[in-house]
From TrEMBL:
Keyword vocabulary terms for this entry: Oxidoreductase, Peroxidase
Phylogenetic placement of the source organism: Bacteria, Pseudomonadati, Pseudomonadota, Gammaproteobacteria, Alteromonadales
Name this polypeptide is given: Thioredoxin peroxidase
Gene Ontology MF annotations: peroxidase activity
InterPro entries in UniProt: AhpC/TSA (IPR000866), Thioredoxin-like_sf (IPR036249), Thioredoxin_domain (IPR013766)
Amino acid sequence: MSFEYTQKLHAGTVFPKFDATLLSGETIEIGLPTANHDWQLVLIYRGRHCPLCTKYLNQLATFQERLSEIGVDIVAISGDSKEQLASHLEQLTVNFPIAYGLTIEQMKTLGLYISDPRSEQETDHPFAEPGLFVVNAKGDIQVVDISNNPFVRPELEALVNGLAWIRNPDNNYPIRGMHRKK
């Protein structure tokens, strides 16, 4: 058995922006904040087949107002098809944009783990394991969390509180994980 290793994105590097499609057919740029926001939380989720993703997306929606108050908008995307997203939306109580059609190449560019379905009943395509990126006003990755399974994700209350603390200019909090060999 051979494996293809992923290339992880690093905190402090430029987030690789890309276009994605919403159910409406509208195209949005992932990594580019919208409206009155200057930061963006980009959530990559496994897809409709994952009940933990459904739960996490619905929980994230409850933090949308708090995130908006500190200038952070939200976008989510998976490798699901348009039809799979339409079906999944029936289980979701979110009002932030959710895109579909994340390609394997985009998954690789983001440094995500990619899994094959266990059966056709699970889903009909390879899918990204969870990833969360917070892109700052400069377009750099402020926060990154990449997992190889659906059981390990940032606890949302802690994440939102942490982002509020980071966004407070009195704290002068830098991007963490930036140690450079001297």
